Amino acid sequence: MQRRIVTLTGRPGVGKTTVAVAAAKILRSKGLVVDGFYSREVREGVVRRGFELVDFTTGAREILADIVGQGPRIGKYHVNIKGIEEFVPRIVERALAEAQVLLCDEIGPMELLSPSFRRSVSRILDSSARAIVVVHRSMEDPLMKSFVRHPEGVLVEVTENNRDGLADEVARMLYGNTP
């Protein structure tokens, strides 16, 4: 059964972003316009320094959180609210206007500190866009729950046991075997 929104969740480090980005690349390879953003770790050697947001279309990057800096803290990281607010809304607006599939990785505690992030990402729910969304596993925030419970969506938990073939399955959930 095709879905409009595939929401991925799972424990930290299990491969949610890897699955989401791989599914987006599969859909892009089928000729679909895919746009959005994803997050990734920033490491200095073996030490995780923080996280950055990456524009799926242009490759542009913005610091999401870092162990040094200013901004609200979550754990040992300072969240770059200004960077989130300047980066994500622009990408989401562009994707909603131009893309057939929107990639949104991740809706989590750091990102949700930004009011502009919340407003932009919530527009996905009211649009007709198909989307691959990654939510933090706690899912206690009302916006996260809106994606998880969306009537045109499905929640998929990424695990070590299912992650290897999951990107193809996510692509099929959104568009079947052909766009």
From TrEMBL:
InterPro entries: AAA+_ATPase, Nuc-triphosphatase_THEP1, P-loop_NTPase. It comes from the Archaea. The keyword Nucleotide-binding applies. The keyword Lipid biosynthesis does not apply. It is an enzyme of class 3 (hydrolase). Gene3D superfamilies: P-loop containing nucleotide triphosphate hydrolases (3.40.50.300). SUPFAM superfamilies: P-loop containing nucleoside triphosphate hydrolases. It catalyses: a ribonucleoside 5'-triphosphate + H2O = a ribonucleoside 5'-diphosphate + phosphate + H(+). Coiled coil: none annotated. ATP binds at residues 10-17. Residues 2-163 form the AAA+ ATPase domain. Its EC number is 3.6.1.15. Keywords: ATP-binding, Hydrolase, Nucleotide-binding. GO terms for molecular function: ATP binding; ribonucleoside triphosphate phosphatase activity. HAMAP family: NTPase_1 (MF_00796). PANTHER family: CANCER-RELATED NUCLEOSIDE-TRIPHOSPHATASE (PTHR43146:SF1). Belongs to the THEP1 NTPase family. Has nucleotide phosphatase activity towards ATP, GTP, CTP, TTP and UTP. May hydrolyze nucleoside diphosphates with lower efficiency. This is Nucleoside-triphosphatase NAS2_0138. It comes from Conexivisphaera calida.
